[in-house]
Design brief:
Elements: E1 8-14, E2 27-31, H1 38-46, E3 64-69, E4 73-77, H2 88-103, E5 109-117, H3 124-135, E6 140-145, H4 152-164, E7 173-175, H5 184-195
Parallel strand pairs: 2-4, 2-5, 5-6, 6-7
Antiparallel strand pairs: 1-3, 3-4
Length: about 200
């Protein structure tokens, strides 16, 4: 399957599960903590600067954004988790909407791109998400964001630590930087592989 990522637009901003798309196009969800770089990943993949808005204050988004790629696939930007300043009502809303997405997906979700900040490594919230996907048998791969930040030696250690993590055994890990564009082609390839 060929996908033209330049033909991407924001189709639906869903604050309720009833607003999720009704068509049968496959979906790749982007999951990760607030400020891990989901919007930057989307913008890099599609070659545009501002389609996915990079929030100035992390944890602001409590909607699920569906980006239509070439009328053939949705990139699904899930709300970031793990942001301490969010009030309990917002946290509950986030949890409920995200849960609805995974439970009421009707088999359209084909894989999750789990974003993990390479320098930070998997947080407790990331580990909860990884455990959930393993238990629910949801296919996923890891995008290790901000890989341009550490030096060469640190970076090698950090990638090795990710690869050795018990929840990431046998999982593809793609180092990615929205700043340098490193990993863009590898993420695109991995998405296409999920569609086969």
């Amino acid at each position: 399957m060929k996908l033209d990522f330049s033909k991407t637009n924001l189709k639906i901003t869903a604050g309720l599960s009833s607003q999720f798309p009704k068509d049968q196009n496959p979906q790749i969800a982007l999951s990760g903590r607030s400020n891990v770089g989901k919007s930057s990943l989307i913008n890099t993949l599609i070659g545009r600067k501002n389609l996915a808005r990079v929030s100035s204050s992390p944890g602001k988004t409590i909607t699920i954004n569906f980006y239509d790629v070439s009328s053939s696939l949705y990139l699904v930007d899930l709300p970031g988790y793990g942001f301490a300043k969010r009030n309990p009502a917002d946290k509950a809303k986030w949890s409920s909407l995200t849960n609805d997405y995974f439970v009421k997906g009707d088999g359209k979700l084909i894989a999750v791109a789990q974003l993990i900040d390479l320098k930070v490594g998997p947080t407790a919230d990331d580990e909860m998400m990884l455990s959930y996907m393993r238990e629910a048998e949801i296919p996923f791969f890891v995008v290790a964001t901000k890989c341009d930040k550490p030096n060469k030696t640190e970076r090698a250690k950090m990638i090795a630590a990710l690869e050795a993590h018990p929840l990431l055994e046998g999982i593809d890990i793609i180092p990615f930087s929205s700043l340098t564009g490193e990993g863009k082609d590898a993420v695109t390839k991995r998405i296409l592989l999920s569609l086969e």
